[in-house]
């Protein structure tokens, strides 16, 4: 019996400059205490802290959190594995999004399954790029 992991459909990221930890929690499907823990584990994740130590995340950090979530929850990476993957591919590089078909056990299945995964990855990349274009007002 094999376990299947379903991809969670996350809401689109609104065109805002800053997001509270509560908003990021909802946008990324991760509880606030997990976000605070990930800040300690992933050096790339550095929200702005303002009055009363309130955290404000920027758009690129929301994308990074979604990537971390995907590596950990959907692809089965450990914290160290996800950290290494982000370090080796760059947190915001296109490879970080396009190579989602690879997980802790190596490359995803060959043939039709990986072609379907690549199509899903490209569609996800297209949507994220459209969000960036919308954010820039073009």
Give a summary of the structure in a few sentences.
The protein is mainly α. It is built from six helices and three strands.
Question: Topology of this protein?
Answer:
Elements: E1 19-20, H1 21-28, H2 32-41, E2 48-50, E3 54-57, H3 59-74, H4 79-89, H5 94-98, H6 112-136
Antiparallel strand pairs: 1-3, 2-3
Organism: Paraburkholderia translucens
Region (Disordered): 83-112
InterPro entries: DNA-bd_dom_put_sf, MerR-type_HTH_dom, MerR_fam
Can you offer a commentary on this structure?
The protein has 138 residues and is mainly alpha-helical. It has a single domain (19-136), classed as Multidrug-efflux Transporter Regulator, Chain: A, Domain 2 (Orthogonal Bundle), CATH 1.10.1660.10. Helix content is 54%, strand content 7%. The chain is built from 6 helices and 3 strands. It has helices at 21-28, 32-41, 59-74, 79-89, 94-98, 112-136; strands at residues 19-20, 48-50, 54-57. It has a 3-stranded antiparallel sheet. The longest helix is centred in the C-terminal third of the chain and has 25 residues, at 112-136. The termini are far apart. The relative contact order is 0.12. The model is unreliable at 93-112 (pLDDT under 50).
């Amino acid at each position: 019996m094999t376990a299947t992991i379903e991809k969670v459909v996350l809401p689109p990221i609104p065109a805002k400059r800053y997001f509270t930890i509560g908003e990021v929690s909802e946008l990324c499907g991760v509880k606030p205490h997990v976000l605070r823990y990930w800040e300690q584990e992933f050096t790339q994740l550095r929200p702005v802290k303002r009055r009363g130590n309130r955290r404000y995340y920027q758009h690129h950090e929301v994308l990074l959190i979604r990537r971390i979530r995907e590596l950990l929850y959907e692809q089965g990476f450990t914290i160290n594995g996800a950290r290494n993957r982000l370090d080796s591919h760059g947190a915001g590089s296109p490879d970080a999004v396009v190579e989602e078909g690879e997980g802790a056990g190596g490359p995803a299945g060959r043939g039709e399954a990986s072609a379907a995964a690549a199509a899903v990855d490209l569609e996800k990349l297209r949507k994220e790029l459209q969000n960036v274009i919308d954010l820039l007002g073009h």
